[in-house]
User: Fold these one by one.
Assistant:
Number 1:
Amino acid sequence: MEQQPTYNQLLNETQELRWQLEEANDAIEAIRTGQVDALIVKNNEGPQLYTLKSADQTYRLFIEKMTEGAVTLNTEGIILYSNSRFAVLVGQPLERMVGVHFTNFVAEISKDKFAKIIKSAWDSDCKTELYITDKTQTPIPCLLSCNAMEFDGGTALSLIITDLTIQKETQLQLELQFDQLEVAQKLTQKLNDELEETVRERTKDLTISREYLKLLTDNIPQMTWTNLPGGEVTFCNQRWYDYTGLDFDTAKEKGWWQAIIHPDDLQQTIDRYHEALKTGQVFEIENRYKKADGSCRWHLTRGIPLKNELGEILFWVGTATDIEEQKQQMDKKDEFIGIASHELKTPLTSLKGYIQIMGVYKSEELPPVIKQYIVKANQAINKLHNLVNDLLDVSKIQAGRLNYTMINFDLADMIDAAIENVRQIYPGHQFVGEIAPKLMVNGNSERLEQVLMNLVSNAAKYSKENTEILIRAYNYDGGARVSVTDVGIGLSQEQMEKIFERFYRVEDKQFLTSGLGMGLYISSEIINTHNGKIGVESELGKGSTFYFELPAV
Ligand code: ADP
């Protein structure tokens, strides 16, 4: 039976072990600080002597300061020396490193790899990446390089351990960024491809629409062109070249109107064109264009601005439509009206005379029914007389022969008399006059009365019975202004723009009235020859105010 050690024996053994530990610590400290160049390590084969070949101070300090871990192993893989960096890496106190088997610091996943590499490392230098582990068992990626070293008394393996954590993280980040970059690049490429496709499609569409436009513009009977807001011409259709016999370079010149517009229409055309370029409003004018053979034809010229969403003019589209035939027909019609009204005037005057003679017979001499017929015939003849007079006026205006004498007279007197007159003619309406006294103007009293009567009868014709018609006359800008306001059917903006044209009438199915659309045309000509202004303010369904202004005497 084995004898139990005594208390004193155990005490001695503990004391012995403590001395050995102190010795070992002293030895390590001595190696680190360069106080010893060799040490004896006991193993299974008994004590062995290990010496450091270049055991100088500088060398050791260099190893201590290295940012890599440096370890020396004996043939059994036991650590003979470790620098502080490696101890820090594996999270162990430096004094506990010596004598520990290196595999303790190799991560589980790298143990096989380490076993293989360590075998071959004694024969030749080698390097590998593997995972070291610290006391928390966290695997740390490292580069391990192994070099076998000859000692005076044997061999040892030096290991240099480089921590790859930062490199690996950086690499990971780089890979991640590279992946993101690749995705972004693919996306950009896709967008680019789509964009290229769209541009290709659009270019195709543009080419097609340009061809369409050319085909269309070259085959319409009108001349057409486009010009920039500054006036520079950018395009003319084939008809323009064929008609004018000019080339594009001439068209591009600023003064191309001179080359093709009839001299009598030129100034007005240029003025309207410049006005339109300035205001951005659609412009329209009837003018004559010279053909390549020198002859002229009437055209209706229109310029329309094309604007962007900000309302800025991008370019103008101009068209000139041949209206020569219409003009000739209009001339023929005017000629016919002139002749017919003239021819009607003579028998009408005789007829009026005979009826007047019949009217002076005493009541006893004629049966009462005949007397009534004479009154009715007189009214009809007066209407006919007015109509023929209007027709004659129109043809006179056309021929530029609407002449009359002008004198200074009091407009207020004329208007007062006219109001009395219309009260007899339109007894169903209430006429209210606001006439300022003494409104001296220079003009033809009969013609101005004709204008006023036309405005007042229109007001009565285009409003319901029992409604009010207000006639005002007052001093205005040194001259006079006369206005006639009704609460009748009113006019739209489009109608207002055309109302002073010859033979223009509004088609109102609910408010059918007789007329030929001459009254306002004649009125505007009369006011124009008085150097005045005629106009209308109106709202559809609410009523209208027609007015004319005459300049100061
Ligand atoms: P008309 O003989 O047809 O009355 P006008 O030249 O005097 O000829 O008038 C032209 C057109 O203007 C008329 O047909 C009518 O449609 C419109 N018009 C004139 N005066 C008025 C008004 N006070 N209210 C509404 N429409 C009017």
Note: The chain has a mean pLDDT of 87.
Number 2:
Amino acid sequence: MRIVLLGAPGSGKGTQAKLIVKERQIPHISTGDLLRGAIADQTELGLAAKKVMDAGELVSDEIVLGMLKDRLNQPDAAKGFVLDGFPRNVRQAEMLEELLSELDIQLDHALLIQVNPDEVVARIAKRAQEEGRTDDTEEVVRNRLEVYREQTEPVADFYRKQDIVSEIHGTGSIEEVHDRIQAVFRF
Ligand code: B4P
């Protein structure tokens, strides 16, 4: 199964992706995690990405696509994947279409996790205390939400045209949200 997870920062994409991959035995591909890995390794790419991420902006499409291409070409991705955090804008969605058609595969589901902005800010404030991520400060989170509204929301329309979008109510416990996702797969 090939799944794309869409939703605002803090909507639970990463959280739900972890549960889906555990059940389905497919890899979790998070562009945020790939970028944070590059930062931890202090690669040139990571150092450039850090400045952009700390401002709450999107890293360049070319950098992210290059990383994604390498990851999708690894053997474990042949049986399916959960893409978390990609695509973040319509251009990335178009680039992904091209890449998948080169590999002769298609997406099965685009899950759009919907959570209201106040809840998102509260969740990220909690994570900031627990994990200290440098892009989780209130000011940066507000910018990330703005970037989401402007650039990422239109991606849902891109997939609505393909009739693969399912909207998931993202408030409630992690298990409740996961059950709603499971119900979509059973359809
Ligand atoms: P990401 O790593 O994708 O970060 P995110 O949007 O905050 O989502 P994340 O998955 O981590 O959090 P989740 O909602 O699960 O991106 C970070 C940055 O990387 C971007 O701003 C950008 O700069 C860059 N980037 C990444 N991909 C890119 C791309 N494709 N192109 C360009 N730039 C890119 O969870 C948040 C919190 O909520 C957690 O603490 C969790 O425990 C909690 N939570 C989850 N579900 C909950 C629930 N049901 N109830 C209560 N709390 C819940």
Note: Helices lie at 13-24, 31-40, 44-54, 61-72, 90-102, 117-131, 138-160, 174-186.
